[in-house]
Amino acid sequence: MYPRKVGLNVWLIAASKEGDDLEEALRMNALGHNLTVMASENEFDQRVADLDTDSGAWPHLLMYLVRGETSDADKLLCKVKASERLSHVPVIVFYTEQATFDLAGLYSSGAASVIRVPVRFQGLVEVMRVIEAYWFKVALTA
User: What is the pTM of this model?
Assistant: First the structure.
């Protein structure tokens, strides 16, 4: 069994009911992690600009909810991957049924995972359990 790493900084960029559900499911299954929720890319940009280089608050994992076209996600991914301080951070992109997107483009832009938000909350809780098991116990333990 892999040890569980606690105290990781997880940033979630999400708005709307789906964003609230993502936040709640993540809080239920990512105990001990520092969750920062932002409602928009502008809020993300401001938070990045306000952080000191040696701050311990930089994200270890970034989650982003796409509500419309994935061109917004592509732009965010390109910005993250071009940043010296963020390029190593895995980005999980969530999308709703309403989103229109280019899956290959998201992965080409640097998405670590692309996940459809389940319709039922219990399905979202299960997705968060899988994320907890992989990202927090296996991938980010080094």
Answer: 0.86
